[in-house]
Structure formats: structure tokens, C-alpha cells
Amino acid sequence: MSKISSAAFADTKPHYDILDGLRGVAAIMVVWFHLFEAYATSHLDQRINHGYLAVDFFFILSGFVIGYAYDDRWKKKMSVKDFLKRRLIRLHPMVVMGAVIGAVMFYFQGCSVWDVSAVSLSMLLTATLLNALLIPATPGSEIRGLGEMYPLNGPSWSLFFEYIGNVLYALFIRKLPTRALSVLVLLAGCGLAAFAVWGPLGDICVGFAMDGDNMLGGSLRLLFAFSAGLLLSRVFKPVRIRGAFWICALAIVTLLSVPRIEHLWMNGLYDTLCAVVLFPLLVCLGASGKTTDRVTTRVCKFLGDISYPLYMVHYPFIYLYYAWVKNENLTFTESLPGALALVAGSVILAYLCLKLYDEPVRRFLTDRFLRREK
Question: Is 0.70 surpassed by the pTM of this model?
């Protein structure tokens, strides 16, 4: 997942406030998508059923904003090392925080699905270190037993692919002329469509585990969406649109909430339509719009500020909520107060992490490793 605030490095360029806000809307939808995992037998019957597509939206935003913020800097002799340091400073403090919160919460998450009492403290500390360093666990070797790359904080998997996208951009993709980049986007889009429509799953809800389908599908999701966002940053021409934030926000909520489509190929076609056609269109519309009133401006800023921290800190509490629901055999109605508290508490925690940890750490690291070199 990438963060629009990276554009802050391009000091002379206008900021896309609406894209910030849309990223926050998608992040909140991810929280609700994960909440309903407690009542699903799989993502096939999960409510907010296509919430997993938010990651594809994030990857497109990532490519768009990185291209917008950094493409011109290579002409000014920015080095690969400097670019990667900037991205690490921007992204990694919250990776560490998510791992730490996941570790602190781990022994409170016991239920019939995973036995936390069987995990020793040394195993937990090892898993915490691996998660903090973004080193993925392989199926059968991780402490929760679900096959996740990052058993303490599941959403870290998308940061694993985000880092791959950043490295590919720095070493290869940024050097492609626009025509060659268009060919890459077309080929990756065809590959993603083939995986979604004719693949074994009928969807692109993949990338979170180190097995064949997840690694193939996750790589296709990243390669298409990141490259498509980069291409959009090069060819984008704004159009006139009023109320862009509210129109696009409603579209995101609607697209991510659509129920599972019964036939595999039809659901895969829907995923392809969203990831390959509609999300790039929404990015273009969001980048075209302007916030013209105080309320929309403040909403977009707040949502943009908390979006990445929210994505990175909410999931340990989803594990806790899941265990509570299973242990108490609760219906959704019975657990609704807890669900609302989880969403509100995650937003508050995200804001506190941003102000008390993420921003100060990034300022320190920027002063220490970037500004002194100028």
C-alpha cells in the first residue's frame, strides 16, 4: 500500500487532496471487510465482499503519486539509494509499529482457530523481528497457523509487494518510455484478467501467503496496478468535475461492498473490471477534482492523514475481535457495539500513532539520513 503524502517531497507541485481522502475511505472499508471475517466461512460468503480490491486501488495510487512526485527528480541526479531511503523512511516506521502492536496483542487472541498458548515467548519475539523487518514467513512455519506471510499483522503483505514495486520502479520501470510502459501495463492487465477469470479462485483476493497462487496473483496485482498508476501520472489530463471526492468515495464504497458473484468467471470478470478499468478512472477523476469547501478539505486531510496508520494498526484488533466472537459464539448484532468500538478505536489509535510516533520518527530519520547529505 502506498501513501499519497510521499508527494510532499515534490515541494513545488500541487497536492492531490482528494486522492488522500479516497485512500482514507478505502482504508476504512478494509477495516469493515476484515471485521466480517469473523462471520464468514471464507471470503466467498463474506460481507463487504470485495473489500480486498482496496489493495489494487492503493497500488494504483502508489504508482500515480510516486511517478508524480519522483519522475522529475531523476533528471536532477537523484540516486537509487536516495529514493529507496526516502521510501523506507516514509513506509517502514508503521511496519514496525504494526508488528509491535501485533506482538503485544498476540496472547489475548486465543480461540479455537489458533492456540496462542502453544507459542513460546521466543517464537513470538522471532516472529516480531521478522515482521518488523518485513521478512515473510512460509506456510507451516508461522506461529498462528493460517499460512499468512505476517501472522502478527496480516496486512503487512501488501507492504512486501509495495517495496517490490518501489525497487522495480527505481531500477527498471521508471526508465521505460511511455509507449513501452503502456505495453507493460497492457500485458500485466491481460495476465491479471486471465488469473481472475480463468484462474482457480475466480477472484484476485491473493498475495498474503508464500504459495504459488498467492505469489503469482499478488505479483500480477502489483505489476499491473503500480505500472498503471505510473502511466497515468505521465498521460493524465484533468477534466472538469464537481463534487469529485463525494462521487468517487461513494463509488469506492459501492464497488467494494458488492456481494460475491456466484460463478467464478463472472466474479473474476468483476474483479478485473474494478482493478483494470474503474479504479484507474476513479484516480483520474479524483486527481481532476478540487476541494472547494472547508468541510471537504478537512475530511480529505483527516482521512489522508490516518489512512496508512489505520491500515497498519487495525488488524491485531481484528484478530482479537475474531477470537471474542468465536469464544462467545456471538452474532453480528450481539457484537455490533464491539465492532463499532473497534472501528472508532482503530481510527483514534491511527491518529495517535501518526502524531506521536510516525511523524516524529520520520522527521528524525529525514534529518539524520537525508538532509545532512544535501
Answer: yes
- CA dist 114 and 331 (Å) reads 20
The Cβ of residue 185 has, within 10 Å, a number of other Cβ atoms equal to 23
Query: How far, in Å, are 174, 226, 332, 365 from residue 39 at the CA level?
Result: 43, 32, 8, 42
- Backbone phi, psi, residue 29, to 5°: -65, -35
For residue 84, the Cα-to-chain-centroid distance in whole angstroms is 19
Distance CA 215, CA 366 (A): 33
Which of 1-34 are b and which e, b meaning 16 or more Cβ less than 10 Å from the residue's Cβ? bbbbbbbebbeeeebbbbbbbbbbbbbbbbbbbb
Q: Which residue from 77, 49, 10, 71 is spatially nearest to 267, judged by alpha carbons?
A: 49
Instruction: Write out pLDDT tens, residues 291-339.
Output: 889 999 999 999 999 999 999 999 999 999 999 999 999 999 999 999 9
- C-alpha grid cell for residue 197? 477469470
Backbone angles phi, psi at 111, to 5 degrees: -160, -175
Residue ranges in the chain modelled with pLDDT below 50:
1-11, 374
Helices (H), the chain: 17-35, 54-74, 80-105, 121-132, 156-171, 178-198, 212-235, 244-257, 264-272, 279-288, 294-313, 315-328, 332-353, 359-369
Q: How far apart are CA 225 and CA 270, in angstroms?
A: 16
CA distance 3 to 25: 13
